[in-house]
Amino acid sequence: MILSLHVEGSARRSKVRAFLEGNEPVDFKPVSRAEAYAFVSRTLTRFDYARLAKPDRGLVKSLLGKATGLSRPQVTRLVGQFVKTG
Asked: Could you say which DSSP state residue 22 is in?
């Protein structure tokens, strides 16, 4: 079964927080690595990551980790690359 997570349509931190605090464990697997990286890039752009306060940056990183299945260090590496190169 293939599911799509549509966070691009709503850049509201309250909705992200509610998703992350959900009671049911969720295991997402992107179809490909390129798709996961593209999702990370779109999400960081959508939330204007560079302008977020530190607590909100952590919230976005948690969302990316949960939605892509990537580890926290890998999400941090991808975010760092995005901030450097855009």
From this structure: -
pLDDT in tens, 13-46: 777 777 777 655 666 666 788 888 888 998 899 8
Cα–chain-centroid distance for residue 50?
14
If 0-12 CB within 10 Å is exposed, 13-18 middle and 19+ buried, where does residue 10 land? exposed
Structure tokens at 22: 């959900």
Residue 9's CB is within 10 A of a number of other CB atoms, namely 8
Angle in degrees, 0-180, between the axes of helices 72-85 and 33-46, rounded to the nearest 10: 60
Contact 81, 70 (CB under 8 A): no
**Is 85 within 8 Å of 45 (Cβ atoms)?**
no
Decide: 11 and 52 in contact? Cβ < 8 Å.
no
